[in-house]
Amino acid sequence: MALANFQFILILALVGIALPFIGVGVAWLLRPKKPNKLKTSTYECGVETYGDAWSQFKAQYYLFALIFVIFDIEAVFLFPWAVAYGGLGFYALLQALIFIFLLFDGLIYAWKTDALAWQ
Prior knowledge:
Low-confidence stretches: none
Largest sheet: none
Order of helices and strands: HHH
Structural class: mainly alpha
Radius of gyration: 24 Å
CATH topology: Methane Monooxygenase Hydroxylase, Chain G, domain 1
Strand content: under 5%
Distance between the termini: 61 Å
């Protein structure tokens, strides 16, 4: 009986693992296979590239993007809580306040380490 309960999870995991490979395989079979120099060249907004197309960005840009994503996820987690606020008790309010405090603490840390300074 216990093994039967996990068969659905095993099937779901196998489908989840196989699905990306199937999608990439179908795209590989259906793609046009006529490469030429123009198709394999770097495209930069319709402007001809000159020099090396690879450029290095500062790590601060990535830190800024990560901090944005973290606070964007904060909004995603807080929205369902705000919608269901009427049916939740004091314990849920306390959990939400702890969650907001931890994120605010992360914001203060990022601010003090100048991760938010745009240079």
